[in-house]
Each structure stands twice: as C-alpha cells, then as structure tokens.
Amino acid sequence: QKEVEQNSGPLSVPEGAIASLNCTYSDRGSQSFFWYRQYSGKSPELIMSIYSNGDKEDGRFTAQLNKASQYVSLLIRDSQPSDSATYLCAVIPGGGSYIPTFGRGTSLIVHP
Amino acid sequence: DTEVTQTPKHLVMGMTNKKSLKCEQHMGHRAMYWYKQKAKKPPELMFVYSYEKLSINESVPSRFSPECPNSSLLNLHLHALQPEDSALYLCASSQNQGVQPQHFGDGTRLSIL
C-alpha cells in the first residue's frame, strides 16, 4: 500500500506568519509531487508541482522536496486569512499507473 | 473558474432516477478522471480514461457508468443510486496519464434522496 501522510491539523498561524505544511510518502520510487488547496465545499486547486530535490518558489509559496527522507513540504510566507483552507499533498508513485495518491489534507487556519 | 467545466453544479435525484454528469476540457489533455469526494476526506478515484479508452476502473459499482465520447468530453451516467452515493463528484484532466498534475473542475454536488 503506497501511503501519503499529512497531519490533519488544524494548523493555526497568525496573519503574516509562515505556515509550514508537511507530507511524507512511503514509495521511494515516487516521481511527482503536488500541493492542492481546497476551500470548504470547493474543488482542489493546484498550487505547486515539484519533481526534483530542493526548493521551488512561486510567489508566497515554496515547495521543498527531499527524496532521501521521503518528505515534501509547503511553506506559505506572509500568510493571509484567505489562505485558510485544506491543503492536499498528492504523490505519483512508481510502478507505472501514474495515478496520484492523496494525503488526507491539512487544515490551515490563518487568524487576523 | 477552472479550465475543466462540469455540469450541473448541483444535482438532487431520487434513487430510481437516471441522470448524467458532464465534464469538458479544451486544454488538449488526453487523460480524464472521475473522483468522488466525501466531506473531510481526500478525493477517491473512480475511473480513468486515457486517449478515450477506459484505463482504470477502481471497482466502482455498476450504477455508475462512465463514457468518453471524444477527447474533450467525459460523462458519468447515474442510475439507481443509494443515499451513500451523495458526495462531491470531481472531474479532472491531465496532459496524459503520466507524471503531470491533474486539473480539477468545480465539481458536481450530488444529493440522493
């Protein structure tokens, strides 16, 4: 069973702080890693993709991948109340089916 | 608004009804997916179409019947659903069934009476 683990939270941070969301995965052959943001009652929205070790920055978002330790994280700088949502980590495992495994999501609350 | 369009946005149906959910994308993607999502759970894969052929059926009950008329359209035909089938149904597409990310539509909120 290929697993993706996330702390369900909620993670509560004050406005303007850095929110750090973490995800671990079990399949060492995993190839692609994605972060989705999902507001309550809405559909998942892709916010970051990362494929190789290191950091990838896009605006206030930074994704970090460490394949040796099998974790991927998402940093949100200058957090805003509008960032309050559930963040889903998705990992495409090895094996050839190319179907992403989703974590259960971390609920983020940014309070003013 | 997303580039994957789903209709209807909301659907209420009785257990004896037949209805269809529709999904359309014009990004030239060749893989399309149906997911079911319950509250506070991650999306759960139902079906995958790759180049208009059914690639994966995750042991979904036969009361759900997918159809891919062409590379831009994906339907999900519903018949004799159960109350536990009430959920958010999400369509997604990706460039192909590979390492690229999936892009989701806004979903159809389905309620079974």
Give structural attributes.
heterodimer, A: 112 residues, 5-stranded antiparallel β-sheet, 11 strands, B: mainly beta, 7-stranded mixed β-sheet, 0% helix
What do you see in this structure?
Chain A has strands at residues 4-6, 11-14, 19-25, 32-38, 45-50, 54-58, 61-66, 71-76, 85-92, 101-102, 106-111. Chain A is mainly β and 112 residues long. In chain A, the strands form 2 sheets. In chain A, strands 2, 4, 5, 9, 10 and 11 form a 6-stranded mixed beta sheet that branches. Chain B has 113 residues and is an all-beta fold. The interface between A and B is medium-sized, with 23 and 22 residues.
Write the layout of secondary structure elements.
The complex is a heterodimer of chains A (112) and B (113).
Chain A: E1 4-6, E2 11-14, E3 19-25, E4 32-38, E5 45-50, E6 54-58, E7 61-66, E8 71-76, E9 85-92, E10 101-102, E11 106-111
Parallel strand pairs in A: 2-11
Antiparallel strand pairs in A: 1-3, 3-8, 4-5, 4-9, 6-7, 7-8, 9-10, 9-11
Chain B: E1 4-7, E2 10-13, E3 18-25, E4 31-37, E5 44-50, E6 53-57, E7 64-70, E8 73-79, E9 87-94, E10 103-104, E11 108-112
Parallel strand pairs in B: 2-11
Antiparallel strand pairs in B: 1-3, 3-8, 4-5, 4-9, 5-6, 7-8, 9-10, 9-11
Structure, briefly:
The complex is a heterodimer of chains A (112) and B (113). Chain A has 112 residues and is mainly β.
Oligomerization status of the protein chains: heterodimer
**Count of β-strands of chain A:** 11
User: Which regions of chain A are unreliable across 5 or more consecutive residues at pLDDT < 50?
Assistant: none
Following the backbone from N to C, one meets helices and strands of chain B in this order, namely: EEEEEEEEEEE
Strand content of chain A: over 45%
List the total number of helices of chain B: 0
Largest interface: A-B, 23 and 22 residues
Protein structure class of chain A = mainly beta
Give the amount of beta strand of chain B, in percent.
over 45%
Rg of chain A, nearest Å: 13 Å
Largest sheet of chain A: 6 strands, mixed
Report Rg of chain B. Answer: 13 Å
